[in-house]
Structures are given as C-alpha cells and as structure tokens.
Write a structure and sequence with these properties.
alpha+beta, 60s Ribosomal Protein L30, Chain: A, six-stranded mixed sheet
Length: about 130
C-alpha cells in the first residue's frame, strides 16, 4: 500500500484554503489548481491572461518539481478560464510551456475564480524515476 505525501514548496504560492499544493501517491503527483500569484510577493501578476498563464505554469512547474515530476511528466491538466474568449491566448502560452509533451486536457469556463484571476490550471503527473517523495 502506498502512502500519501504532502508536497510543499516556497517556489510556488502557498495554498489559499484548507488544501495542499499537491499530494503524491502511487507514483503520481496530484497538483491543486495554481493561479497567477507571485510566490515572492503574494500579489497577482500584472498584465492580461497571457502573463497570468505564464505565471500559473511557472507555479505549476515548481510544485511538480517539488513532487518529483515536471511538465514533461504531466498526463492530465484542467484549465479553468474566467472567459472562454481567452482560449487562444492561453493555448499559445500553454503550447510553448509543454512543447511536444502534450498531456490530456479539459478546458472550461467558470463564473468566477479565486482572487478574481483569469486562469487556473491543475495537473496530474507521473513521478520521475528516483523521485524522493
């Protein structure tokens, strides 16, 4: 039976509610949704959806790495958008970050996101061989 391990890193914003940044179990990393907070300042990054998506993916990468994974080991993401009209702009940043390692994905428009950000992304990834968590 595998154990659950809490993932926590200062390189990504701390949870803004009663949840963990991620959990590792069974060789997988289950990342909570990341929003466009700068982990050093706690402030929402300035700019539009492109800048927010870049920060979200930077935060997600930090959590994944703390859990023994990386963007290249993500198998599934969910993108939550405040406005589906931002789909193309988010796709451009997302495609650059993931390159040819394109996980399965769902994208949905929601009525509101935490802190009124424009985008949130969660992920499920496989831990890399030799991961210590």
């Amino acid at each position: 039976m595998s154990k659950r391990v809490v993932v926590k890193t200062k390189d990504a914003p701390g949870a803004i509610g009663p949840y963990s940044q991620a959990m590792c179990a069974g060789g997988m990393v289950f990342c909570s949704g990341q929003v466009a907070l700068n982990p050093a300042t706690g402030a929402i990054v300035e700019g539009g959806v492109g800048e927010q998506t870049a920060q979200v993916l930077k935060n997600l990468r930090a959590v994944l790495e703390a859990g023994g994974a990386g963007l290249d080991s993500v198998v599934k993401t969910t993108i939550f958008l405040a406005d589906m009209d931002d789909f193309a702009a988010v796709n451009a940043v997302y495609a650059e970050a993931f390159g040819e390692s394109r996980p399965a994905r769902a994208t949905v428009q929601v009525s509101r996101l935490p802190l009124d950000v424009l985008v949130e992304i969660d992920a499920i990834a496989m831990q890399k061989a030799g991961a210590k968590t």
